[in-house]
């Protein structure tokens, strides 16, 4: 008998839930159709919009907190590229100077010692 009563209670709860869902479905179909308004639908929409807006604000705060400001990142990137180009030019200039000094040193050694200069690979022309 207890099992029968529990089953009857569950059936009544299911029927009530079905009736509630049918009512909500009718309200949604009636309110969204011919331009009518439904307060429950509008309220649910407003609540959803508030929830999405709160999520977006949280995401924006996280991005800003993580250094995600796009303009700042672009500026830092441009500065790094400019510094890289300047350093490459400086390295090229220093390499040219080193090569020129090695050639001049080899020429002076050849004049002073009367022997032929050592090959460039032994002179260390690639060292900086």
Give the helix/strand layout.
Elements: H1 2-32, H2 39-65, H3 70-113, H4 120-123
Structure description:
The protein has 128 residues and is an all-alpha fold. It is 83% helix and 0% strand. The protein contains four helices and no strands. It has helices at residues 2-32, 39-65, 70-113, 120-123. It starts with a helix and ends in a 5-residue tail after the last helix.
What's the helical proportion of residues?
Answer: over 70%
Morphology: rod-shaped
Q: What percent strand?
A: under 5%
What Rg is obtained from the alpha carbons, in whole angstroms?
A: 41 Å
How far is the N terminus from the C terminus?
A: 97 Å
**Helix and strand sequence:** HHHH
The total beta strand count reads: 0
Brief synopsis:
The protein has 128 residues and is mostly helical. It has four helices and no strands.
Keyphrases for this structure?
single chain; 128 residues; mainly alpha; 4 helices; 0% strand
